Here is the input.
Amino acid sequence: MAFLGLVDTKEVEAFATTLAEDLGRRFPPASEQRTDTGAKNQLAVILDGLGTRAARFRDEKRLGLYKKAKLGNVVRWKLKDLGYSDAFVDQATTAIITRVAVR
Here is the structure.
């Protein structure tokens, strides 16, 4: 039964959805068109905080390679569902997953 724990990703999916929804609430898709310095700084702070939360989750749940990948994919697809552009989705997902992948 230990094997089932390795592939059960419900908790990871729920956490990743929460991260994406938090980004959507704090920096809505309409804000991605902003090019001012304030918007760039705001986005950097938000992504840094989400990356920190994701790294903490990784440490608490001891995520393996499969669950880290699942986390990134769920964040990516949820951001696309929220209406962000592909470029923004790539940037945000990379920023979050880089923090998860690197210790």
Observations:
- Helices lie at 2-7, 10-26, 37-61, 65-82, 86-101.
- Residues 2-101 form one domain.
- The chain has one domain: 2-101.
